[in-house]
Amino acid sequence: MSTVSATSSSTTAGQAKTTMTAESLLGSDFKTWLTLMTAQLRNQDPFDPVDSTEYTAQLAQFSALEQQVHTNDLLSDLITVSASNDMAGMAEWIGKEVRVVAPADYAGTPVPVHASPDPTAYRAELVVLDRYGTEVNRLMINTGESDLEWNGRDAAGHDVAWSRYSFEVESFDSDGELISTRGAEIYADVLEVQKSGDLYALMLPGGVSVGTEEISAVRSAEG
Prior knowledge:
There is one protein chain. Strand 7 (163-172) and strand 8 (178-183) form a beta hairpin. The longest helix is centred in the N-terminal third of the chain and has 39 residues, at 52-90. The chain is of the alpha+beta class. It is elongated. Helix 2 (30-42) runs antiparallel to helix 3 (52-90). The strands form four sheets. Strands 2, 4, 5, 7 and 8 form a five-stranded antiparallel β-sheet that branches. It has a three-stranded antiparallel β-sheet with strand order 9-1-13, with no helix packed on it. Strands 10-11-12 form a three-stranded antiparallel β-sheet, with no helix packed on it. It contains three helices and 13 strands. It has two domains: 2-89; 94-220, Immunoglobulin-like.
């Protein structure tokens, strides 16, 4: 009798261990889990067989596990398809012009600039900076949102070198105190779309990279 009790205790412990192992395998490999359950049934104590209720529960667990694996596979397929569709959609940006705060290359023709001074500004100025951040020119502009052109000349009225320039809008109050400084926007061609993780970046001339959230307007390349 003691031998049977010892065997029963050992078997019960083994069943508990097998159950915990099965739970730890959820979401992993249900084939391994099935092998463990089959081994449990094959080696069960004939004097203390697996309870039918427990056996049914384990089968239900196995069914749920298998369904979870299939669901994960389906989700992976859907994510792959979605990513492909996203990239195809992003490709439509190529060839468009986007309005964004970015430097512009001056090559002898006026550079269109979109300025948005502070809404409370009494006076506003457009500041032109060279590629090193040195001020090249400063122009009075409207205090309201407006489109204008920089003619490629410095403060002395001389033509500047063909190079890359950036633009800032400085807003002042009625006492001449600076309220804010914000970047002015230019239109640039989208040459390429790149993906990094879940984020997309638009590549502009000169190797400039911007995120789609930085864009305030889009138009066809013909303007």
